[in-house]
């Protein structure tokens, strides 16, 4: 459910809606996007890891879940840094003020870090970013 809600936030990223990129046109929750081969902009929301809750009051009821938002947009050597900044700005803006999308018991995702992603092969015309968010989510238990 956490990944779905994050994806809903990010699907709003469209130039027509006032954003700087159209990265929200393709949002997936698949864990292994082919980032080096895809031509169009896209965003992938993937589960990274879980840890014991940081807050002692949540340690028996929640898990600290780390999510990666992997995104890329077309770019050239002349505009790659500007495109990277626009993409990062769009993601942060799309995630802001969206707490209403998350069900009771789910902590609104907290920004942790971002790092640029660049093509590994010369001639690929894109730039990307990996942004890490964390959220405490409820531990699901089967009914007895």
Structure description:
With 144 residues, the protein is of the alpha+beta class. The protein is built from two helices and five strands; from the N terminus they run αβββαββ. Strands 1-2-3-5-4 form a five-stranded mixed β-sheet, with helices on one face. Strand 4 and strand 5 form a beta hairpin. The longest helix is centred in the middle third of the chain and has 16 residues. The protein is elongated and about 55 Å long. The model has no long low-confidence stretch (mean pLDDT 89).
Q: What proportion of the residues form beta strands (DSSP E)?
A: 25-35%
| H/E topology pattern | HEEEHEE
How many strands in all?
5
Number of helices: 2
Low-confidence stretches: none
Q: What's the rounded overall pLDDT mean?
A: 89
In the sheet with the most strands, the strands line up as 1-2-3-5-4
Shape: elongated
Gyration radius, rounded: 16 Å
Please describe the biggest sheet, giving its number of strands, its sense, and whether it closes into a barrel: 5 strands, mixed
Q: What fraction, in percent, of the residue positions are helical?
A: 10-25%
Span between termini: 23 Å
Structural class: alpha+beta
What topology emerges from the helices and strands here?
Layout: H1 2-10, E1 27-28, E2 42-52, E3 62-74, H2 80-95, E4 110-117, E5 126-138
Give descriptors for this structure.
alpha+beta, five-stranded mixed sheet, 144 residues
Concise account of the structure shown:
The protein is of the alpha+beta class. The protein has helices at 2-10, 80-95, and strands spanning 27-28, 42-52, 62-74, 110-117, 126-138. It is built from two helices and five strands.
